[in-house]
């Protein structure tokens, strides 16, 4: 296991879980820099010669893993959700927006994998790993990007993480004008309106309404997902809701893997009827 | 003003979208359930390239696609949106490749980069269908360019040797990074508002060049398609759904749903 940058000793202690044999700390840089990471991981690889190089399938992971694997001429498989070690290595990953799973076999002695966060249970207990410092000579001339700052986005008047009931809207709403329909439902129910990523990408709702990996993680009592298919990035932000209700015509959409209740029917018929059930007035679209 | 010439190369993929109901044929989805389209992320990359072209005096935007002749229709869409000309790489070796991994794609695109010598390469973060998310950064490493992954804001003055980008990290945090050119940027959705092609653009696209290239013409050996990775299974995952589905007419469904919500404490 390798810890690079930041409070490496603190992280090393935290990662010293049962089953971990060795932890290498590399105290290079306060913030993530892919040039430093790429050089460091390649140096560690040369020193340790692992059969499998496991990297995270995160925004930063995808900022250095392909460079490392390409530089080391290792086959790369990204976003693994399962791994089996047999005669060859078999990796399970999804395709077509989680509609199918595939197994790919890697016929090589050494391989780089990025693994999807949350697919494996965290290691537990306390280990007796040997923690040692690993020194890398960073070639500063090939550090050609500089982090100049960070910013939290999605602030503002509404905090969707505070809401008890969220009415959340996705791509199935089709047109910007139709947002009025889910707004009316949220108003009628006294709920807060949130959304999946495409709605924010389209500029139909502000960033502070976005639920998911790059947005907010929410844990309301009730989450009503309307026209949301349930892409993995979205699910990462709402799977902790107590009760999940889905309204989506596609009964095989991944959102139904999480939903407690569902209506596999046209949201443009169901939502107006639901507004009326609670004494509200559906908008004319 | 008075900037020097700049070239932007945009990697454009044609991807397959699968219908809700589909059937699997061997290791692929039955062709009749697939609809081909411009990769969503690449639509934003095209827009970013065209915006640079419009902001500068002398900026050429070239697109590159690895794909069969069918992809010309998708490439025409990019041309109609303002891309100046296109390159499409395909031959019998690529046709016969069962699993086109990111290393192979990076090698092919690297040969195009060597030919074209762009200042900036824009690629989508990932493709809709495989969601591999690795080609852009692997390409940068291959050609020795700097790079930035998952870019959701780009500021660049043509002629400058640095681009200022925002990278979208998890949890609503953005990183500000300065990247030296030449560079590969992988573009995140939402970075801009991709335009619709105008009728004039669509007409003009008809006379723009789509240059077909083979691996051989790019100076690549057929062995570039060799991969240690092979697809061995493709299946519909067993549903993990234990959702209670309300059924009936929309009014009946809404009625049952309303009852549930009231039980859960929702009051109008």
What does this structure look like?
Chain A: It comes from Halococcus morrhuae DSM 1307. The complex is a heterodimer of chains A (285) and B (268). With 285 residues, chain A is of the alpha/beta class. Chain A has two domains: 115 residues, HUPs (Rossmann fold, 3-Layer(aba) Sandwich), CATH 3.40.50.620; 118 residues, 3-Layer(aba) Sandwich (Rossmann fold). Chain A has seven helices and 15 strands. The longest helix of chain A is centred in the first third of the chain and has 15 residues. Chain B has a single domain, classed as 3-Layer(aba) Sandwich (Rossmann fold). Chain B contains seven helices and 15 strands. In chain B, strands 11-10-9-12-8-1-6-7-13 form a nine-stranded mixed sheet, sandwiched between helices. Chain B has a two-stranded antiparallel ribbon with strand order 2-5. A two-stranded antiparallel sheet of chain B has the order 3-4. At the A-B interface, helix 2, helix 3, strand 4, strand 6 and strand 7 of A face strand 2, helix 4, helix 5, strand 9 and strand 10 of B.
**CATH fold naming of the largest domain in chain A:** Rossmann fold
The string of secondary-structure elements of chain A, in order, is: EHEHEHEEEEEEEEHEHEHEEH
Please write the string of helix (H) and strand (E) elements of chain B.
Answer: EEEEEHEHEHHEHEEEEHEEEH
Number of helices of chain A: 7
